[in-house]
Design a protein that fits this description.
99 residues, 0% strand, mainly alpha, 87% helix, 5 helices
Length: 99
């Protein structure tokens, strides 16, 4: 009986945590990261980046030379990162302000 009650308490706690924007954005960032690692060959990118002398030009050429799926995934990753940083910053500022 006690274990069933505690399971219900843990379930409610977990469901409340799922509503947190930080959790949702972290999960979305993780899913987008897995998609990027599946779509992009990281060792090839690093090898080509070392061979290039112009990093900005390399990234622009690499970005515009990829498929639309990879481009949209990279844009989604950047936007998710910005929202994640914004929420962390706002949370720490509010925490410092009210403590």
């Amino acid at each position: 009986m006690k274990s069933k009650i505690m399971f219900g308490v843990y379930l409610i706690y977990f469901m409340r945590k799922l509503k947190s924007p930080f959790f949702v954005e972290s999960f979305a960032f993780a899913v987008i990261g897995v998609c990027l690692f599946y779509l992009v060959s990281i060792p090839s990118v690093l090898t080509n980046m070392r061979a290039s002398n112009d990093f900005y030009g390399y990234f622009m050429t690499a970005f515009f030379g990829t498929d639309f799926l990879v481009q949209s995934t990279l844009v989604l990753a950047a936007v998710t990162t910005l929202f994640l940083v914004k929420n962390i910053t706002v949370h720490t500022v509010l925490k410092e302000r009210f403590t």
